[in-house]
Amino acid sequence: MKRGKIWRLFQKITYRYSQNSNGTFKIHKEDGTSEDAFSVIVGTGSTPRRAGFKNEDKFFGRGVSTCATCDGFFYKNKEVTVIGGGDTALEEAFYLSTICSKVYLVHRRDNFRAAPSTVERVLKNEKIEVILNSRPDEVFGDDMGVLGINISTPNGIRTLNTTGVFIFVGNDINNSVLKQDNGSFLCEINKSGEIIVDLNMRTNIKGLYATGDMRLDAPKQVVCAAGDGATAAIDAISYVMEHRH
């Protein structure tokens, strides 16, 4: 492969990756052209799911968030609402309780899907009010941002006057670029769609690496994804130098 080819790959959106019979990779692009590569590093991330309540998109980034680590500090000593019932939702609710004056944890079911130890820790936290069998109905606010959220409960609509609403109802892994024509994936993934890698970001396919939010056990932070990329690049350079001749 000629020097500089790696830069030209970024000028066109990648549609899909596949593997050639000789162990190299074919990069299929949306314009119908393709490139061959000795090694591929994939980092297409994940997309946080939305909860689907009214005005959710309108106020996203202005009070509605999917990252407590990123935005929690803006609500120091204020009341916030967390939507969700899995491990991430409970862990983030607990984290927010160390910053905020109160955390409302709204879950649509009557029990949590999180680990028992996490559930116990949340239930014992006096700053977290758990609201079960309930779901968000509408978030409202003004030009400055969120002023509150209405939730549907068994007893009717309840209004929570919180300026921060954090949604943790799951992530969709952006792994479609690794899906093959027969519906299988180019490399091994888990039941959640996350790419299984080792400490060097290697997949079970030699020369193929996965980084950032799409990989197994990703911390889902930009700085961590950047570190994954550096780790994969160092290993990929060694792999290419070893196999290009």
In short:
The chain is an alpha/beta fold. It has helices at residues 5-8, 68-71, 87-97, 116-123, 222-243, and strands at 14-19, 25-29, 34-37, 40-42, 46-48, 64-65, 79-83, 102-106, 128-131, 135-142, 145-153, 156-160, 164-167, 171-173, 208-210.
Task: Provide key terms for this protein.
FAD/NAD(P)-binding domain; alpha/beta; five-stranded parallel beta sheet; elongated; about 20% helix; single chain; three-stranded antiparallel beta sheet; 5 helices; about 240 residues
Alpha plus pi helix count: 5
CATH class of the largest domain: Alpha Beta
Instruction: Give the beta-strand count.
Output: 15
How much helicity do the residues have?
Answer: 10-25%
Q: How many domains in all?
A: 2
Across the major sheet, the strand order is 6-13-7-8-9
The CATH topology of the largest domain is: FAD/NAD(P)-binding domain
What is the architecture of the largest domain at the second tier of CATH? 3-Layer(bba) Sandwich
Question: Beta fraction of the residues?
Answer: 25-35%
Shape: elongated
Determine the N-to-C terminus distance: 11 Å
The radius of gyration computed from the alpha-carbon positions, rounded to a whole number of angstroms, is: 22 Å
- Major sheet: size, sense and barrel closure? 5 strands, parallel
Order of helices and strands: HEEEEEEHEHEHEEEEEEEH
- Structural class call reads alpha/beta
Q: Would you identify the regions where 5 or more consecutive residues have pLDDT less than 50?
A: 1-12
State the CATH superfamily name of the largest domain: FAD/NAD(P)-binding domain
